[in-house]
Amino acid sequence: MLSYSRQVSQTSTLSKIVRAVRPTEKRPVSMTTSTPASASGCSHSRSTTAASRSTSRSGSPSATTPVAAHPVPNASGIPGVVEYVTTGWPQGSHNGPAAQALAHDHVTGPVTYSVTPPVGGQHNAAWMNCGIYDKPVPSDRAVHNLEHGAVWITYRPSLPQSEVNQLRAFVRKQALVSSAEGAPSRYMDLTPYPGLSSPVVISSWGFQLKVSSPTDPRLQQFVNTFRASPKYSPEYGGAYTGGVGTPLQK
User: Fold this and answer.
1) Tens digit of pLDDT for each residue in 97-130?
2) How far apart are CA 51 and CA 62, in angstroms?
3) Paired residues of 67 in beta bridges
4) Could you point out which of 23, 45, 173, 190 has its C-alpha 20 to 30 Å from the C-alpha of 244?
């Protein structure tokens, strides 16, 4: 029989051998912090940039998220506008399929929208820097801009350059709007968008208008009504700088 001191010595040696051959265990480190939802329903910190925000309000998985927008009678007073259900936000009981309202959740994966271009719904946690782009942009980021009160003008990539220039001039002539979260902005995006059913489409959160010409007077009516609007913008005053993307011109 081994003495007690010899048993302890053998046990200690065995323990060292086991630790030497066992892979080092790494504990998972959480990179996401949650903050309480504000009165507007937004759960991200207003003092941080888009790149540093939480990637999801609801912890949504990265699977494709389908978004359905449900049309209702147009009450905007602008002929041709298609209006979609937004009633009830930010109350959780009315924000979603039960009331058919456009949801506001942040998701990490791709989103499939039922309206082209989209007019709201789940979107990426990072918004775009506003301005004029000469290439298509991710719809899930543009939708985040709509939530902050942006107006998004899209056009067919085949639109004649002369008409693209007219749209760019239209955006540039709009006055800057003060923001509660950053530098003043025009709260407008202009981008090409493949697959449009009309040469030009202008969208805001829950509203959309299709036109055939950059000189259609309803474009200015749409901007005057919906851009950075306390009535129509779910997160009125939200940042439009400090996001992602490099526009040709802000």
Assistant:
1) 445 778 777 888 788 888 999 998 888 777 888 9
2) 17
3) 113
4) 173
Q: C-alpha 199: how far from its chain's center? A: 24
Amino acid identity of 49?
A: T
Cα 12 to Cα 8: distance, rounded to the nearest angstrom: 6
Q: Is residue 243 part of a domain?
A: no
Range of the domain at 207: 71-85+126-226
Q: Which two tokens stand for residue 20?
A: 């030497």
DSSP summary character for residue 190: E
Alpha carbon of residue 226 to chain centroid: 17
Element containing residue 172 per DSSP (H, E) = helix 161-172
pLDDT one-digit tens code per residue, 204-248: 999 999 999 999 999 999 999 999 998 998 888 777 777 888 899
Answer yes or no: is 99 within a domain.
no
Q: Taking the CA of residue 76 as centre, how many other CA atoms within 13 Å lie in the half-sphere pointing to its CB?
A: 27
The number of folded domains in the chain is 1
Cα–Cα distance, 151 to 25 (Å, whole number): 50
Please give the Cα distance from 229 to 138 (Å, whole number). Answer: 23
CB 206 within 8 A of CB 100: no
Q: Using a CB cutoff of 8 Å and minimum separation of 24, what contacts does 219-224 make?
A: 219/153, 219/170, 220/170, 221/78, 222/78, 222/81, 222/151, 223/151, 223/174, 223/188
Hey, which bits of the chain come out as E strands?
Answer: 65-67, 71-72, 82-84, 111-113, 131-132, 151-155, 188-192, 200-204, 207-211
| 238, part of any domain | no
Q: What is the pTM of this model?
A: 0.72
Q: Rg (Cα) of the chain, in Å, rounded?
A: 25
Is residue 142 in some structural domain?
Answer: yes
